[in-house]
Amino acid sequence: MLSFWEKKNFLNHDLIVVGGGIVGLSTAIQYKDIFPDHQVLVLEKGVFPSGASSRNAGFACFGSLTEILDDLEVLTKSEVLALVQKRYEGLLAIRQRFGDVHLDYKGDGGFELITEQELPALKRVEEINELLFPVFKQSVFSVLPDHQQLGFGSKVKAVIRNGFEGELDSGKFINSLWKACNEKGIKILTGAKVSELLAEEGLVQVNDQGEKINFKANQVLVCTNAFTPSLLPDMDIRPGRGLVMVTEPLPYQISWKGAFHYDKGYVYFRNIDNRLLLGGGRNMDFEGEETTDFGINPKVKNHLMEIMEKVIFPNAAPKVEMEWSGIMAFGMDKRPLVKKINPNLSIAVRLGGMGVAIGWQTGSELVNLINKS
Question: What class, spelled out in words, does domain 4-54+172-236+333-372 have in CATH?
Fold first, then answer.
């Protein structure tokens, strides 16, 4: 049973955020920017953020050329431009707020490896540069003249450079968010799995050792991404598991740096501490990876291993030292889902695998939404 002190001091708040990942923490911080005297509580079911916030590859990206071309198949040009702008401005916002040093941000650019199948995309470089010009005021994509010098396998027919992308340390990003929450007096309870939302009463129920604890707030915000349907069924949200692997340190210096994309962005890799970080590949088994269960899919891992051995390091591939998975959320398109469910309950979910880029902006959009009401 709860003590007198617990009931008096821990249960009632102005705002409760369910989900302590990038979006949830970003939302709490920006809400406190506006309402510094309000009591804010963040409930996170894991010890660390449960989805992909501290499990991603650390790409500060907004979309490779072929990804943007794919988006144009389902969205209008203005919608694609708005999506890229939101991602890019989100990256600029977190860099300005927390600083490149604290994020371990490196602005070495993004690179997309083009195979025979993607060669037609080269003819559309100028078209996409024109589309994105209102945001960047200069050309974003260019074709490297001597891509063979990077040492990739023969399947790579061209490499496209994007000078506006970068990399960061995902753990340092979360640390920066935690520090900001602490400085603003935002309470974060980890290991607090929400079992039920009683939205009309403004109650959020957590089971603790068999006891139901009801936290109460004027506003409840759900930022649980792929795990949202467990609380709010019938949402257009599909989970997508992502695999990330890191090799042993290489005995020689990797000659390239930057954030690399392959296979229309489904595969990505970078150099971290002279190790290869390699991830993605869920397109090898979309059905199998549409899950909220953490784990390693052999089809996906074998696909990534083949890319490492035949494309990235065709002469001597290093050994994998560690591997993990993260859970992302997707919908009919890649736009986040930010909406009011009722006067007391709102959501900001479905980041489309771009949480690093748009998590902060999505939190800002959610705060603006509830501030207007």
Answer: alpha beta
Query: Where do the domains of the chain lie?
Result: 4-54+172-236+333-372, 60-168+237-330
pLDDT tens digit sequence for 22-78: 999 999 999 999 999 999 999 999 999 999 999 999 999 999 999 999 999 999 999
Nearest Cα to Cα of residue 227 among 243, 248, 241? 241
Nearest to 13 by CA among 214, 224, 227, 223: 214
Q: How many CB atoms lie within 10 A of CB 343?
A: 13
Residue type, 315: N
What DSSP character marks residue 184?
A: T
16 and 31 Cβ atoms separated by less than 8 Å: no
Query: Per CATH, which fold does 60-168+237-330 belong to?
Result: D-Amino Acid Oxidase; Chain A, domain 2 (3.30.9)
Report the predicted TM-score, pTM, of the whole model to 2 decimal places.
Answer: 0.95
Whether 113 and 261 have beta carbons less than 8 Å apart is answered as: yes
Tell me the mean pLDDT in the region 102-107: 98
The pLDDT of 331-343, averaged and rounded, is: 91
Beta-strand pair 267-272/275-280: antiparallel
Q: Where are the beta strands (DSSP E) in the chain?
A: 12-18, 40-44, 59-60, 110-114, 141-143, 158-162, 166-167, 187-190, 194-198, 203-208, 211-222, 238-247, 259-262, 267-272, 275-280, 320-330, 337-342, 345-349
